[in-house]
């Protein structure tokens, strides 16, 4: 049995858990992820929605994403931590933002996406596969 993916916000008011292996681990460089995270790219762990649960109050924000479909990002209303996303184009997945993992050393990105929007100064793992738009 695999170790659950667990994480929490900065203040600890929201905790989450996802059982099972990740479906993907990636760095997204789309402008929305840059703005939401305040960084050049957002490290993401994709898990099955059916295995995901959280405790605590969240504040959702929904916007049209890079897929052309709405995506909802969920924050802690107390400390503002960006915790997880629920992309409407793929309702069977949840995207965990790896900076909130209890054990971020488990994050092992397999690829980067939206590299056409990547910052010039960003040099995350240049040898991994890169896709100029959403990964296939």
Automatic annotation (TrEMBL):
A Pfam family that the UniProt record links to this protein: GFA
Highest taxon of the lineage: Bacteria
A Gene Ontology molecular function term of the record: carbon-sulfur lyase activity
UniProt entry keywords in alphabetical sequence: Lyase, Metal-binding, Zinc
Family: Belongs to the Gfa family.
Protein name per UniProt: Uncharacterized protein
Source organism of the structure: Paraburkholderia atlantica
Taxonomy of the source species: Bacteria, Pseudomonadati, Pseudomonadota, Betaproteobacteria, Burkholderiales
